[in-house]
Design a protein that fits this description.
The protein contains 4 helices and 8 strands; from the N terminus they run βαβαββαββββα. It is an alpha/beta fold and 170 residues long. The radius of gyration is 18 Å and the shape is globular.
Length: 170
């Protein structure tokens, strides 16, 4: 287990990003430095044709970093997606907590989101039993072997993350 990391997983359309936005805001208000890694199973483009950075990457740069006084962006070409653990070790030493969105097949501690209207089944319980599941955030009561959090109460979800991830012993 990687310390101070938790992955929010769910079926598409369940509201992972929406909940994460609120949990991040809550944790920031409490004074934590928060990093986020979003898993994208599809190809995405962060650089745009016509921009100098895009031209340099298109010319063959394997790594291209653009920096300003406020932020930086790194574009790194690779043959296959690096393991999430490698991304964490390489890029997130300056934060108190890393939240990931997705990475449902990783061994990271997970909080699964569940909406009754979206699905009757869970990814991490039922047909599959993921031992890295530490909680479920649901909009309906569930009987599970892990805590069930109120999906519509991001402050309580942040409390759980703070207690069980940030301040976890061991």
């Amino acid at each position: 287990m990687i310390a101070k990391t938790v992955s929010f997983v769910a079926k598409s359309g369940t509201g992972k990003t929406t909940l994460l936005e609120k949990v991040i805001a809550e944790l920031k208000q409490r004074g934590y430095r928060v990093g986020v890694i979003k898993h994208d199973a599809h190809r995405f483009e962060i650089d745009h044709p016509g921009k100098d950075s895009h031209r340099l990457t298109a010319a063959g740069a394997d790594t291209m970093l653009i920096a300003s006084p406020e932020k930086l962006a790194l574009i790194k070409q690779h043959a296959e997606a690096p393991p999430v653990e490698e991304l964490i070790a390489t890029y997130f030493s300056d934060v108190d907590l890393i939240l990931t969105e997705g990475f449902k097949k990783s061994g990271l501690p997970k909080i699964e989101l569940h909406r009754a209207e979206r699905s009757a089944t869970l990814l991490c319980r039922g047909a599959n039993h993921d031992p890295s599941l530490i909680a479920v955030a649901s909009d309906e009561p569930l009987e599970l072997d892990v805590p069930v959090l109120d999906l519509n109460d991001p402050a309580r979800v942040a409390d759980f993350v703070e207690k069980n991830i940030i301040h976890a012993v061991g």
